[in-house]
Amino acid sequence: MDTNAQLDRLLERQAVASLGGGQDRIDKQHAQGRLTARERIDLLLDPDSFEEFDMFKIHRCRDFGMEDVVIQGDGVVTGHGTIGGRIVYVYAQDFTVFGGSLSETLAEKICKIMDLAMKNGAPVIGLNDSGGARIQEGIESLAGYSEIFLRNVMASGVVPQISAILGPCAGGAVYSPALTDFVIMERLNSYMFLTGPKVVKSVTHEVVTVEELGGADMHSSTSGISDYAADSTPDAIHYIKRLLSFVPQNNYESAPILPCSDPINRSSEILRSIIPENPNAAYDMKKVIAEVVDDGDFFEIKEQFAPNLLVGFARFNGVSVGIVANQPAHLSGVLDIDSSIKGARFVRFCDCFNIPLVTFVDVPGFLPGTAQEYGGVIRNGAKMLYAYAEATVPKVTVITRKAYGGAYCVMSSKHLRGDINYAWPSGEIAVMGARGAAEVLYGRQAKESDDPAAFLAKKEEEYHETVANPYVAAQRGYIDDVIVPATTRARIVRALGILQNKRDTNPMKKHGNIPL
Fold it and tell me: Do residues 210 and 185 touch, judged by C-beta distance below 8 A?
């Protein structure tokens, strides 16, 4: 065969492979408002940067008539490319080929790029759209899933892993996304669950829709599995690109430092009056964050889940940081089961990938009640404590108002190796609020007084002056400085600057036993 004929044969095979399950199935995918695997990759990566692997790989099943249906690429498109000039490895399941179901060879394709990502230190992005295990292959399909799960675990903390759910994701398929660092789901077009509505109805007699059981909004607000519910595939892709801009390529590198035109010493007069005179009144911690970070740009993670705690990324003088902050505008900023899990996972991600942590504290304590105690608020609250104590990245803390009880300890206190801890003059650091403390300490005496209310009010003021203020902690060195709120940005930038070469270690061990 001459060279031209060989080249023609290659181009012909490439053209056939690029159509996946064929034009009819591509048209059906488009009719449902969904892009194909290759279209999604094109949207994700820089133009002309995609290099595909295993385009000609086919399945090996010879049962149930599968030997008569062989499609090049076998249900997943894999390879590498760049996003903003930075290398990433990507796989996109192709629903036009056997519903994107996972076969032995499909799993091999995914595992190959995951292995390369770990060897070469680059993020892995999975675009999921699959009907689950390929039933015709039985154990080979299950083995393939397990091989992927193993690599998810081995890659954890080595390279960032991001999953986008852009179609169905059910049964064993859900565990790979759950093992990755971030999950983005597309509204209406995607779902995740272990068992579908029909099985649920037959076993538990519950009647539930696909959206109620495993839709993007449910997982983004109730289960917390999803970090973001996207309105469309382009929205999901944009979120992934924004997310990657804040994180490094791998655990040996730092996140990209961007040029910063926002003045380092920029003062914020809004912060002088943002704390209400009434200590029980709410305010929006997002406004505090927006006032101090570069250009007011706060990229929030899990916005719909446990909104009493804010987590996300921002920059100070171009340096990427992880933000953790109590939100007084929701449940008074109290910590509970969900917020503790949310915070702990985010803190551990930042620590894995050398991203400094900046924590804003206004927390009245942990949420009381039987629902929380029965649900394990002690164990789950300990996750947050564990994460902060274990973290060796630079940690800067700002107490804006309340820091009560065990919640004070948990929120990156000096005692958990917080590096630089500041407080505003409005800071209240104590076992509990002044009013509650006065009632505990002087309740009996108040009943015996002529004016119990006036007596308790006086004792409340005494407790506040004696204990519930930032200066007692500052006297002991637990607060490094009480700062003028308007200067918070400048103080954080300087703190991060002196901590940029920080070195800290944990005791040698195989791994700790975090309270799961």
Answer: no
Residues pairing with 412 in the sheet: none
- Residue 156: Cβ within 10 Å count: 17
- Residue 358: burial class (beta carbons within 10 Å; 0-12, 13-18, 19+): buried
pLDDT at 461: 76
83 has pLDDT over 80: yes
Alpha helices in 360-516 (DSSP H): 370-375, 377-390, 405-410, 434-448, 452-466, 470-475, 488-498
- Positive or negative, the CA dihedral 405, 410, 414, 415 is positive
What is the torsional sign of CA 388, 389, 390, 391?
positive
pLDDT at 456 over 80: no
Question: Which of 97-106, 338-347, 434-443 is least confident?
Answer: 434-443
Cβ-in-10-Å burial (0-12, 13-18, 19+) of 349 comes to buried
> What is the DSSP secondary-structure string of 212-266?
HHHBHHHIIIII---SEEESSHHHHHHHHHHHHHTS-SSTTS-PPPPP--S-TT-
Residue 459: pLDDT band with limits 50, 70, 90: confident
Give residue-wise pLDDT tens across range 300-334: 999 999 999 999 999 999 999 999 999 999 999 99
Length of the chain: 516
pLDDT greater than 70 at residue 1: no
Report percent pLDDT > 90 for the chain. 76
Indicate which residues carry an active-site annotation. 171-172, 406-407
Grouping H, G, I as helix, E, B as strand and the rest as coil, residue 109 is: helix
Q: Where are the beta strands (DSSP E) in 291-446?
A: 299-301, 309-316, 319-326, 357-363, 395-404, 420-423, 428-430
What is the Cα–Cα distance from 327 to 275, expressed in whole angstroms?
13
Asked if the model's pLDDT at residue 40 lies above 90, the reply is yes
Helix pair angle (139-155, 104-120), 10° resolution: 10
Task: Say whether 130 sits in a helix, a strand or coil.
Answer: coil
pTM over 0.90: yes
Q: What are the structural domains, with CATH classification, of the chain? A: 3-245 (3.90.226.10), 269-432+469-498 (3.90.226.10), 434-467 (no CATH)
Task: Kindly state the DSSP code that residue 46 receives in the 8-state scheme.
Answer: P
